[in-house]
């Protein structure tokens, strides 16, 4: 009887372990990140991994960051925020001016369409988003507009 209980517990443990591993979904994404050189590559990839990416590879020519991450641990948004904090603009976030200015001279890339609000806040460009009505009440449900600095009053 004792042996039967041990086998039952062992069998249950195996199924529980398999079930818990099955819950982890790995997502692969390609994100746009601006930069110039090999030093940029190291910093961008390190920032992405510090935000939870299990794999990060940035291509200097295409300006694309390929990442893989467990969706229960991080998100593309968190990864982009970490990259922006390190001084590099992404498709949805911009680095603040201080972080950008700390980059070595060879890492200073051409920044297009960056407003003073974006530089100071490091915020998502909500008003560039088609969903944003650019009115104060349109910002209610958008986390990037919580301060409503990008919306017209």
Give a nutshell description of this structure:
This protein has 153 residues and is an alpha+beta fold.
Structure write-up:
With 153 residues, the protein is an alpha+beta fold. It has a domain at 25-126: Alpha-Beta Plaits. Helices cover 36% and strands 14% of the residues. The protein contains five helices and three strands, in the order αβαββααα. The protein has helices at 2-22, 38-50, 76-85, 97-101, 116-121, and strands spanning 26-32, 53-59, 64-70. Helix 2 (38-50) crosses helix 3. The longest helix has 21 residues, at 2-22. The chain is rod-shaped.
- Which second-level CATH architecture of one domain applies? 2-Layer Sandwich
Rounded to an integer in angstroms, the radius of gyration calculated over CA atoms is 21 Å
Q: Helix proportion of residues, in percent?
A: 25-40%
Poorly predicted spans: 120-124
User: Which sheet architecture does the biggest sheet show?
Assistant: 3 strands, antiparallel
Average pLDDT number:
78
- Structural class category: alpha+beta
In what range is the share of β-strand residues?
A: 5-15%
Rounded to the nearest angstrom, the distance between the terminal CA atoms is 75 Å
The largest sheet has its strands arranged as 1-3-2
Secondary structure tally, helices? 5
Question: How many extended strands?
Answer: 3
Q: Which sequence of SSEs, written as H and E, runs from N to C?
A: HEHEEHHH
Fold topology:
Blueprint: H1 2-22, E1 26-32, H2 38-50, E2 53-59, E3 64-70, H3 76-85, H4 97-101, H5 116-121
Antiparallel strand pairs: 1-3, 2-3
Helix pairs in contact: 2-3
């Amino acid at each position: 009887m004792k042996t039967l209980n041990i086998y039952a517990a062992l069998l249950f443990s195996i199924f529980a372990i398999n079930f818990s591993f099955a819950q982890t979904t790995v997502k692969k994404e390609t994100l746009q990140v601006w930069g110039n050189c090999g030093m940029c590559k190291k910093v961008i990839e390190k920032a992405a991994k510090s935000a939870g990416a299990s794999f990060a590879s940035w291509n200097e020519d295409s300006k694309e960051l390929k990442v893989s991450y467990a969706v229960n641990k991080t998100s593309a948004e968190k990864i982009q925020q970490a990259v922006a904090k390190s001084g590099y603009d992404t498709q949805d976030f911009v680095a603040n001016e201080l972080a950008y200015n700390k980059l070595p001279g060879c890492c200073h890339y051409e920044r297009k369409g960056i407003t003073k609000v974006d530089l100071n806040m490091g915020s998502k460009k909500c008003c560039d988003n088609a969903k944003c009505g650019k009115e104060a009440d349109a910002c209610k449900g958008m986390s990037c507009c919580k301060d409503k600095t990008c919306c017209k009053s």
